[in-house]
Structure prediction request, 110 residues.
Amino acid sequence: MIVYSDDAAADREFLRDVLDFGSVDAGGGWLIFRLPPAEIAVHPAEGEPRHELYLMCDDLDETVRHLTAKGAELAGEVTAAAWGDRISLRLPSGSVLPLYQPRHPVAHEQ
Prediction:
């Protein structure tokens, strides 16, 4: 996965310092981050096909409390969906990174 950013250095610091993702330096300060377990789902497209990236957590309220205490800014309010509760974090570059707590079985526990 590659995230393109208007302020890559600040977004890298956020991933390292706020989300606590470990990393390796691929050279010249290009950090490659270790991610938690991941899942992928494929849904039928309505309109142009697109990709979305969500971080997943076990307890959205606790995760939001922890991350905001570390300086994370939220983009909006918690929204309930049939598949889970979600909110977005605002990256230092201004883009958003959605976070959700699933209400469905999770594949990484299988």
Notes: The chain has a mean pLDDT of 91. The first strand starts at residue 23 and ends at 25.
